[in-house]
Design a protein that fits this description.
There is one protein chain. By secondary structure, the chain is α+β, with helices and mostly antiparallel strands. It has three domains: about 130 residues, no CATH class; about 160 residues, no CATH class; about 325 residues, no CATH class. The protein has 14 helices and 26 strands. Strands 3, 9, 10, 14, 15, 16, 17, 21, 22 and 24 form a ten-stranded antiparallel β-sheet that branches. It has a four-stranded antiparallel β-sheet with strand order 1-2-26-25, with no helix packed on it. α7 runs antiparallel to α13. Keywords: Membrane, Transmembrane, Transmembrane helix. It holds the Pfam family DUF3176. InterPro entries: DUF3176.
């Protein structure tokens, strides 16, 4: 219980009579009229001091009095603002403004590149805005809860402990939780308590609004070039008195790589390109290329075992079987013995082909067992198959990309119909095979686009195919193999036969005639690279003179992604806080309660047991600046007394 008494601290001299407040059950030793109960007390003491002071100090006392009056005037202005909840309303408005500014900033950069400001980052700006918004609304809520305790006690008699509950609620989340539990939805002050508790997640939620993801944007300062040509007429020097033409050495090297270089990165299939940013893209491109198409011709095999092995040879008298296609491509075997021709490959004239009779270049045929293995005995009848492939010049439309230095293409269209220049009586153009796809810019074709494979190139490739793609592989004994080709040969047919029978060609992990299809697709890719790289090679690997297709270089940039659902909690905190403040203003006016809020001074004046006047005037608490107080112990009682 708070008691009014006048006492002296044990370590002080005689004290003037003044109000004192003790905590304990002891009786006061001297009851005096409280300073807070008599509005004239300060004025009387001041006048008495002025009469007793020497004349030399009268001027100083008057100056101090005037200064005090000026301070009271300023405090009166401040009190007026406080009584009208001006500061709390301004804080709520500022909080809303910061929250709106936060939303505006996020909306501006949502889906945009991360800003590169000099001194601050986007996260820093959002953190500052959210911190100011949270601090302002919590200030308003704290003051509102502090005011609501006076409204709570003004409505009806309430437990004194509720005073402590309200006071704790205005200071933090623990007290707010206690307030919600105590009131149990009986008073809208729980809105404020809920706002204080939810405000714990204010900063994490606002920070979780921002996420970053990598995105690529065009970088004009970087380089994106891709080899591409519309015509190819490159060949080596003539030979055999101009009856034959050597193949372009670049094409030969690429084809050999596709057959003999077991490299899964397939460098022989990737055209020359430059992408300084490691990520590039190009608009649709149309280019002269080659493709391989194959068909099974097993049904056209003709097998005969009528002849016998001569008496003067090993296996004398055994059946000597032959397997033949209509083009005279032939394999032979002695059934279930180690001596047999396991595979036979030949390039044939188009009119001798089984399927591709209109081919531009010689079709290639292959006869082999279903699962040929040089370490086992020859198969019997009915276990052989045949394949026929044709490599044809085409025009292909594609989109090219480079991602993390990995080149890739997507086919958009293929045009196969061509015509020779003499078929249209063209005389002022190079002789060769021409292509005119009826495409538009969406497939990389301009109105003047034309594609051509020259006659010299066709002649050189034809001689190359006839020499390279011909031969047989067979066993003489279990420990002896033979690679039989035409003699003489200007290329490497025996190496090709060895690769087809015993080698591991890239991507061709099969042991049947289907291996020919895989190998010819590799050859077609190598030829396509050669066609497209021809301008680059002709310019001595100079990008600036190679007339390459220009693309777009892309650079990875961090983009901002705003996850808007996380804004719900900050907005809810503001709504609860603003609602609590509005309700507090309305209830305070309705109950005509002084706007003391969290001011502790009125508590010292409000309860005075045993005095002839209890309570405090509405203005007396503002005079506390002129009243000196000290807390000390007297007779086991804690006393807060004026000094």
């Amino acid at each position: 219980m708070i008691q009014h008494q006048s006492t002296e601290p044990p370590d002080e001299g005689q004290r003037s009579h003044s109000p004192a407040f003790s905590v304990g059950s002891g009786k006061p030793t001297d009851r005096r009229r409280l300073v807070a109960d008599d509005d004239s007390t300060h004025e009387t003491l001041s006048q008495r001091s002025q009469l007793e002071a020497p004349n030399s100090s009268q001027g100083q006392s008057l100056a101090a009095h005037e200064k005090r009056r000026e301070g009271d005037k300023q405090k009166s202005t401040w009190t007026g603002f406080s009584d009208r909840f001006v500061w709390e309303i301004l804080a709520a408005i500022l909080s809303a403004a910061m929250l709106i500014a936060l939303i505006v900033v996020l909306a501006k950069f949502d889906g945009k590149p991360q800003p590169t400001w000099k001194h601050v980052s986007l996260n820093t700006v959002i953190s500052w805005l959210s911190t100011i918004s949270k601090a302002c609304i919590i200030f308003s809520v704290s003051e509102a809860i502090g005011q609501l305790k006076w409204v709570w006690f003004a409505q009806k008699t309430q437990p004194l402990s509720n005073l402590r509950t309200f006071d704790s609620a205005s200071r933090g989340f623990y007290g707010s939780a206690e307030l919600i539990w105590t009131l149990r939805c009986r008073h809208f002050a729980i809105w404020g308590g809920l706002a204080v508790i939810l405000a714990l997640g204010f900063d994490p939620f606002t920070q979780n609004l921002i996420h970053y993801y990598p995105n690529t944007v065009e970088d004009a300062s970087q380089q994106a070039l891709l080899a591409n040509v519309s015509s190819y007429d490159t060949a080596g020097p003539p030979t055999a008195h101009a009856a034959e033409v050597w193949i372009d050495p670049v094409l030969k090297a690429n084809v050999y790589n596709s057959l003999f270089n077991n490299d899964h990165s397939r460098p022989w299939s990737i055209p020359q390109y430059a992408c300084s940013s490691s990520n590039c893209t190009w608009d649709p491109i149309a280019a002269l290329e080659a493709r391989a198409i194959c068909s099974s011709v097993t049904g056209d095999l003709n097998m005969s075992c009528d002849s016998k092995v001569p008496d003067n040879l090993t296996y004398a008298g055994q059946p000597n079987c032959t397997i033949m296609l209509p083009s005279n491509t032939t394999a032979w075997f002695i059934p279930y013995q180690y001596e047999y021709a396991s595979i036979s490959i030949a390039a044939v004239l188009p009119d001798q082909a089984v399927v591709f009779k209109n081919a531009t270049l010689p079709p290639i045929q292959m006869i082999a067992p279903y699962d040929f293995n040089p370490s086992v005995k020859s198969p019997g009848e009915g276990k052989w198959q045949a394949m026929e492939c044709s490599i044809e010049p085409i025009v292909r439309s594609f989109s090219a990309t480079v991602q993390d230095n990995m080149y890739g293409e997507e086919t958009l269209g293929v045009w196969t119909q061509g015509f020779y220049s003499w078929e249209k009586n063209w005389t002022n153009v190079p002789t060769g095979l021409y292509f005119e796809p009826p495409w538009g810019s969406d497939l990389g074709i301009s109105p003047s686009s034309g594609f051509m494979l020259g006659s010299s190139a066709i002649m050189g490739i034809t001689d190359f195919f006839n020499s390279l793609f011909f031969g047989q592989f067979y066993l003489q004994t279990l420990n002896s193999v033979v690679f039989k080709t035409r003699e003489p040969s200007i290329y490497a047919p025996s190496d090709f036969i060895q690769a087809m029978s015993l080698g591991n060609i890239t991507g061709c992990d099969v042991r049947s005639a289907e291996k020919l299809e895989c190998a010819m697709k590799n050859v077609a890719q190598a030829m396509s690279k050669t066609f497209r790289d021809s301008a680059y090679v002709g310019a001595n690997s100079d990008f600036s003179r190679a007339n390459m297709t220009i693309g777009r270089a892309l650079t990875s940039v961090s983009y901002v992604q705003v996850r808007w659902p996380w804004i719900v909690l900050p907005a809810l905190v503001w709504v609860l806080g603003a609602g609590t403040l509005a309700g507090t203003i309305w209830k305070s006016r309705r109950a005509q309660v002084p706007k003391w809020k969290n001011d502790p001074i009125p508590l010292l004046f409000l309860y005075q047991d045993g005095s002839d006047k209890r309570g405090v005037s509405l203005t007396k608490a503002d005079g506390a600046n002129h009243l000196g107080m000290r807390l000390y112990e007297d007779d086991k009682n804690m006393v807060l007394a004026s000094t």
